[in-house]
């Protein structure tokens, strides 16, 4: 049996701690807003919590990877979830809900009445997009050159079927009490590189993604759900201006069926090494495979000699790979 105590933006799900320990924890968390993952105090809710732990150990993101689940019924809202209107007295944009989860460890559920930005309302299929939207008038005249350009963007805007879902819930992947439809990871370019290498380890395939400058929350969730494929997306202006997303951050999304695959791929020796410095040295060490390809195509060094290949250990030492 679990009990739940809420301390600021911090949840602990565990058997009741001793009174002194509870007081210490309350004091620390009230001051620092630290989130301690549920799995440290109780059992793992599911294999996805373990996947989250493994992904965090490999890429060390600045914020928690987020488990996201589309809700078919209000009955699916977890008991511990914050409902913005009910609990905060305000609507939130979905990017702000993401921030509560990824920075403060909260579980947040949004139904139609909790939404502030209209684009996730349309993208998640919580309401029928109005003709005003499809005519391009949300983008013209400020963001695009013509109504036609605005309409082009609106027609290509990714949307889930209207009426299929009533809302969305999100929580840190490491501690979510529900099984996610997708995992959304805010990362820098080096961490994105690792995630792409981990994904490709099994079948060698790269991702095909749609990048847009608007509606990061929609592009981070909907295309991955519709195609059951990993996606990369760019934080939008709202995400930056109202949810604290930083200049260096990108978003990587993994559908449910591939979360374990990425976690496993990240742990392989061939996907884990990244340079800790850089060099502009000409004719630097190539891998043995690259040297073989270069030779087969007739490439030579500047002095006319054959291009030599080097083993992984030698190349890693030359750039001080981790």
Please describe what this structure looks like.
This protein is of the alpha+beta class. The chain has helices spanning 19-32, 47-59, 84-88, 94-104, 118-123, 131-134, 147-156, 189-200, 216-227, 237-243, 259-266, 288-296, 312-319; strands at residues 3-7, 10-14, 66-71, 108-111, 167-172, 182-187, 231-233, 250-255, 286-287, 309-310. A 6-stranded antiparallel β-sheet has the order 4-5-3-6-8-7. Helix 2 packs parallel to helix 11 (259-266) and helix 8 (189-200) packs across helix 11. Residues 1-44 have low confidence and may be disordered.
Compact summary:
By secondary structure, the protein is α+β, with helices and mostly antiparallel strands. The chain is built from 13 helices and 10 strands. Helices cover 37% and strands 14% of the residues.
Describe the secondary-structure layout:
Elements: E1 3-7, E2 10-14, H1 19-32, H2 47-59, E3 66-71, H3 84-88, H4 94-104, E4 108-111, H5 118-123, H6 131-134, H7 147-156, E5 167-172, E6 182-187, H8 189-200, H9 216-227, E7 231-233, H10 237-243, E8 250-255, H11 259-266, E9 286-287, H12 288-296, E10 309-310, H13 312-319
Parallel strand pairs: 9-10
Antiparallel strand pairs: 1-2, 3-5, 3-6, 4-5, 6-8, 7-8
Keywords:
globular, alpha+beta, six-stranded antiparallel sheet, 37% helix, two-stranded antiparallel sheet, disordered N terminus, 322 residues
């Amino acid at each position: 049996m679990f009990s739940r105590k809420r301390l600021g933006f911090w949840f602990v799900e565990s058997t009741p701690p001793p009174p002194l320990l509870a007081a210490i924890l309350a004091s620390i968390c009230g001051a620092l807003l630290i989130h301690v993952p549920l799995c440290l105090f109780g059992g793992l809710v599911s294999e996805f919590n373990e996947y989250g732990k493994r992904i965090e150990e490999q890429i060390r993101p600045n914020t928690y990877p987020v488990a996201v689940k589309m809700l078919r019924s209000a009955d699916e809202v977890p008991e511990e979830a914050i409902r913005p209107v009910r609990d905060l007295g305000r609507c939130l944009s979905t990017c702000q809900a993401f921030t509560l989860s990824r920075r403060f460890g909260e579980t947040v559920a949004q139904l139609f009445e909790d939404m502030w930005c209209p684009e996730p309302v349309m993208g998640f299929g919580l309401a029928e997009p109005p003709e005003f939207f499809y005519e391009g008038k949300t983008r013209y005249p400020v963001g695009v050159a013509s109504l036609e350009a605005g309409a082009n963007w609106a027609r290509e805007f990714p949307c889930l079927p209207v009426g299929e879902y009533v809302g969305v819930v999100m929580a840190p992947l490491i501690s979510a009490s529900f099984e996610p439809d997708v995992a959304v990871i805010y990362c820098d370019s080096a961490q994105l590189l690792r995630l792409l290498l981990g994904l490709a380890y099994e079948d060698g395939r790269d991702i095909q993604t749609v990048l847009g400058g608007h509606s990061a929350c929609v592009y981070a969730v909907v295309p991955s759900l519709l195609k059951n494929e990993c996606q990369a997306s760019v934080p939008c202006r709202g995400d930056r201006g109202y949810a604290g997303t930083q200049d260096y951050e990108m978003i990587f999304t993994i559908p449910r069926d591939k979360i374990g695959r990425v976690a496993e791929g990240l742990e392989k020796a061939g996907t884990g090494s990244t340079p800790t410095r850089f060099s502009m040295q000409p004719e630097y060490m190539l891998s043995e495979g690259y040297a073989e390809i270069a030779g087969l195509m007739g490439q030579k060094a500047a002095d006319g000699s054959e291009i030599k290949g080097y083993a992984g250990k030698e190349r890693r030492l030359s750039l001080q790979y981790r």
